[in-house]
Give the backbone structure.
Amino acid sequence: MSELVFVEGNQVVTDSLTISKVFDKRHDFVLRDIEVQIEKLKQACETDFSLLNFEESTYENERKRKYRKYNLTEDAFALVAMSYTTPSAMKMKIRFINEFKKMKNYIQEMNAPSYMIDDPVSRAKRWIAEQEEKQQLQRTLQIQEPLVNFAESCMASEKSLLVREVAKLASKQGIIIGERKLFQQLREWKLIFRQKNEPYQEYVNRGYFEIAQGVREVNGSSKAWLTMKITPKGQAYIINRLKKQQAS
């Protein structure tokens, strides 16, 4: 890793502390130079170049006190260093620019497919890393496959279901349970009342159930009706709980 530049996020940057040290300038003077450039950019640029290339940050001194500093991209560094014109400063600017290029090439090489790398040692290292990444991905997919299948099933419904429909959905996940047994399980979990097919208000509020109700005429008299349905959120909760119960 270079002593002049480093990687922050996805960008190669240097910082005001490094510039201060290398150009033998007080850090507060470097901060002043940077902020002068930022102010000029705000006045001159339609796009906010300063936000993209100057990032205000902090560092800790030996006493663990925090102070301001800036991280600078190559473009930002070039603007600030433009005013440093002594012969020694020119040498340091060339060093910085070369280090920026080296680091960018290094990152590109590390991210490139192995077959695109010319150096045989680097190509071999990248090939090994690719194989390890593939094996890790395969292991992750094996672990996540049941969860993905379940999520796809839930997304396929995209609507609230009756208890018998949720029982069928559970069977697709390898949980053998019929409508009657699922009703019984919901009562044992105290999600619905023991004497009627109606959820406790707490679980309606959580978004697990929804209730449709109304009044209809039967043989000349009005009768109230109520239908309980399980929301997609409730389906996920119930099937996950059934899976855990089955595994224990």
Summary: Confidence is low (pLDDT under 50) at residues 147-156.
